[in-house]
Amino acid sequence: MQKIILSLLLLLCLTQTSFALVDYSSEENVVPNRPQKRSINKTSRAKSKSVRSSSSRSGGSYVPTGMFDVKIGYSTISLESELTTSKVNVFEFNGHFETGANIYFDAKYWMADTSSEDLSDSSEGQAGNPEVIMGFNWLSFGGSGNFTNIDLLVGIRLAAEDSDLGSSRTDKIIGVSTVKRFNQFALGLGYKYYLTGTPNNETELNIGNMSKLSATIGWMVSNDIQFELEGAVFKVESSDSITKLNVLGETDSIGTISPKLGLKLARLVNLNLGATFISKKPKNGDRLIGANLWDVPGVYGSSINASIAISI
Asked: Between the chain's N and C termini, which has fewer beta carbons within 10 Å?
């Protein structure tokens, strides 16, 4: 009888010990949670980098934030002057490349066509001016909800060859841009200065240096909808050339207001819709037509535009 009782007690102790081993499994469940915590931090850092990347962009609203972005746009300019009343269609291609070292590159190329014989001898597309800008992230701080970014810009705008609507001069570009985020809102300021060259085409208007000062207010309505409003002043200085006959005699400026709407179609695809309205007309609008600034919104008239942005 004692042997039976001892056997039962031994069996009970072994059973309790086996259940105690099973209870230790709760500690094993804690270990896999640690990598999840680190992955959340990585996601947060990636999101912060994405915000910094999108804040440094200079062209357009609601642009994807990959290493390489492509945007294809179309705009129609309503031209009304003493010379002609017509429309000019501008096709624009933009590229943005992130190097991952606080340096990025923006590239732009545009073409234009018009049915007005006063502007072009051909109704086919005319070559525009290739433009390349290098941006350097000089200063950035804050989190994704209160991010501040300041970039320095330097670039070049190359001459167009054998074009009725593209400029035949080469311009150098310097500038600065800054963005401050307030949760779902953002405020941006930008300044570009164009050191203009001498046109190769003798009939093209010879102008002085140009500058653009802009202020932008952005509102992220949701993850799929973003609204942006930009106000800008574009200034064209008079030419001091004494060898050219066709020169701009006095400094002129144009004021514009541009509302923009960004719609997210897919994870890396966005549709941008916008318009540009003139708030201050130039004094010498007819003269400025000869400077071939068709890629600068608002110089020659109000316009509407649409573009598709794809991130790679």
From this structure: N
How far is the C-alpha of 194 from the C-alpha of 112, rounded, in Å? 21
Q: Note the pLDDT tens digit of each residue in 153-212.
A: 999 999 998 899 999 999 999 999 999 999 899 999 999 999 999 999 888 999 999 999
> Is residue 21 scored above 80 in pLDDT?
no
152 Ramachandran zone, left/alpha/beta (phi>0; psi -120 to 50): beta
Please name each of the domains of the chain with its CATH number. 32-311 (2.40.160.40)
Three-class SS state of 48:
helix
4 contact partners, CB below 8 Å, separation of at least 6: none
Q: Classify 47 as helix, strand or coil.
A: helix
What's the CA gap between 154 and 242, in Å, rounded? 29
User: Helices in the chain by DSSP H: which ranges?
Assistant: 2-23, 25-28, 33-55, 285-288
Contacts of 246 (CB under 8 A, 6+ apart): 202, 203, 204, 205, 206, 290
Q: Which two tokens stand for residue 59?
A: 């062209």
In angstroms, rounded to a whole number, what is the distance separating the alpha carbons of residues 101 and 107?
A: 18
Contact indicator for 307, 72 with CB cutoff of 8 Å: yes
pTM: 0.78
Q: Given this model, what pLDDT does residue 241 score? A: 82
Q: C-alpha distances in angstroms, 220 versus 126, 260, 262, 265, 267? A: 37, 12, 9, 15, 16
Q: Are 228 and 218 in contact (CB under 8 A)?
A: yes
Helix (H) or strand (E) holding 91: strand 85-98
Name every residue whose Cβ is closer than 8 Å to that of residue 238 and which is 6 or more positions away in sequence: 207, 208, 247, 248, 249, 250, 251
Closest CA to 54 of 131, 130, 140, 133: 140
Separation between Cα atoms, residue 166 and residue 291, nearest integer Å:
9
Closest CA to 54 of 41, 72, 42, 67: 67
